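Let's study my pick:
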Amino acid sequence: MSNQTRCQPLKIKNDICRVWTAVKTKSRCEKKVSALCDRRDIPHYLPLQRNIRHYKSKRVESMVPIFSGYIFIHLDSAAKKIVEEFRHTAQLLIPDKRMEHLLITELNNIELIIAATSAGELIVRPEMVPGQSVIIKSGSLAGLSGIVSRRNNKTRVSVNVEMIGFSVSLDIDVCELEINY
């Protein structure tokens, strides 16, 4: 797996010989660690999002990491030693089996959100209140669960990556949501 540009959805899977690990990088070094993994043929995942900045006379578009300071690497014992020696690596957050399963699920959910190209305006129903757990019931994100938050008359659903304390949010049409009791 290499640094994805979102051509097709990624399916992150469990492997007995390897462990999906969140790797904390030094500041602004996520792409450098990704390139090092590419050169060493180490499977990894760096979720990116499009960033557009406007300057006086030009528009600059770039791809930036969704989780600042983190990359996800599929490590075996040999790859672990190599990654620990990268000068841009700060810390390896190696999960136990339960946390790895949760991380794999969350990364696949993040990939589904990245792959979803449209997020509709949302009319908020009174029963969908901020902080409420919901399940997306249709569309490309069907089955994904999240938490509702409201911002500027829109409803936003957040998906958490608990291991590193980040979440990814998107605006979604209310007709695609159902309350998770």
Notes: The mean pLDDT is 81.
